[in-house]
Input
Amino acid sequence: MPKKRRGKRRSGCPLNASVEMLGDRWSLLIIRDMMLRGAKSYKEFLECYEGIATNILADRLRKLVAYGIVTAEPDPSDGRKLNYLLTEKGIDLAPVLTEMVLWAAEHEDTGNQALVRQMRENKEQFLAGVRKRWANRNSPRP
Amino acid sequence: MPKKRRGKRRSGCPLNASVEMLGDRWSLLIIRDMMLRGAKSYKEFLECYEGIATNILADRLRKLVAYGIVTAEPDPSDGRKLNYLLTEKGIDLAPVLTEMVLWAAEHEDTGNQALVRQMRENKEQFLAGVRKRWANRNSPRP
DNA sequence: TAATATCACTTGCATTTCACAAGTAATATA
DNA sequence: TATATTACTTGTGAAATGCAAGTGATATTA
Output
């Protein structure tokens, strides 16, 4: 029996595409940890926010790769490891995450006030820094 | 037996708060329709994106109200209706939505190119317009 | 080289969420 | 009074999720 498709989503509408890729409890957190904390390996993601189940993490990483937000390449120094790295499409989410963090900081109690202040006081510079670190992390491999 | 709490989430971390409120398939779409299309009633939300189930819509509206993102007040001209309106906290999500739309427009096929162009070419002016329309919608009641 | 450890998963099972259809109470309109 | 509309709730089956316990490949240690 063919898999029944549930919920017909109109894809042409702005935002629908984003929500399809990012509208769940974990994807944005995974991306945040790659972007701001430099997390790269499965194990690091598992430990970053204790609470995500291993099957869910595997599923989300697979989807992020499928959406072109993340790449998975074997670690040259340890054949067991995969390094998950943000693609350009992935790092382009930095403004989205930044606005979300600023919104939450404005309206909720959130931690890491230093980071928030940095984001708020010079958003452009903060974003440039994020992108630069991303470029440096990727470029050393020709 | 008390309900077991699953998944211990650290709330102090930036972004966790946002994801808790917005990290699902529907909340951001509901907010978008309030913000950009002026949708206000249960029925309008149901029709906006056919596919959301009535129980889920009721649940999401309830949560958005609980989070202080939306208010529900009876329509003065029809006692059966409730008008769901964005709070200040809700309208403050405009930059987040804008960045998400721009990101998707950059990397996916999305509709409403006119809106996207408007957002991209003068983001600040676009955001000011959104906020102004929101203020006008709410202020006529003293 | 054998034993053990680490890593990135997969599998199985119970619980929860979700989509869909059908109903309901309150209010409005004819 | 009869019918319609609005904002839901309830029931049901299917899918997604959380958790514990594996598994196979590679690395490290004795």
